[in-house]
């Protein structure tokens, strides 16, 4: 369901005003190092934190809960942690469309000032903000998804989106009847280019001469492309009208429009981040061939568990195919006939036989 962003921004402002009235308090201090899920590098851990003192602050990207994709995956990780770990209070805030970097800073700063520790920033748009705010609150543990912002108290939860996208690209090439597919990206930034690069290479590994249309909805600094279903629908319609029969979207909340276009065209679409055959609007789930699973929920849960356990590490943890951080979905049975082939590609990537480009 589409959300009213003007209302949400007002709500965020109201929450911010409330948070400014809360007395600041700190968390446990400690230094960290670097860790990758695949390589197993380690570093010094933080001092153990009392589980019942873990007040979690989570700052969403544009769209927040209800985007049926990236933000909802982060929310799922928080919900799992609330159910399985002994967390204290939690606070969730979200970004508004067109907001400034200063506003993102203020959101993170208010959470830290109000005693939330750890604080998780969802999305690369918080990169500059988290570097500045984390330096101001060295006793607070911060995590950021999809960005390499560095700091002794910043954990980076990053993914091999290109590897997961390779698999759904291969699926598209194996299932297309027209040898013509498409890709809709929300905003043309390096992160989303990783999705495109993997998808194109995966498709070409099956059919070297396959035609792949590519369209980005907006260019930075305009990030509205991650929450504009109308633009997503228009872009996908153009591809279907031009002959494509499968379109992969890496466009956040705009992906709902791609699914609507697929339904109108009686064609296929490919979801992203979550298993969107389970999370998208019920009216369009039947057109979702598969989804590239980016397990943001797992990363959020892992980070919160490490905080509770007192083992938080600064630096990157990479969730790739080998670590089980990305994959493809099989909900609906649409790729059951090619699953074995996709699993073969998957194993070759894990074994290093296939190198997937990231740009």
Automatic annotation (TrEMBL):
Pfam entry (one): Bmp
Organism: Sphaerisporangium melleum
Limits of the ABC transporter substrate-binding protein PnrA-like domain: 61-358
Cellular component aspect of the GO annotation: plasma membrane
Name under which the protein is recorded: BMP family ABC transporter substrate-binding protein
Keywords: Cell membrane, Lipoprotein, Membrane, Signal
Main location, first listed in the record: membrane
Signal peptide: 1-23
Xref: PROSITE patterns: PROKAR_LIPOPROTEIN
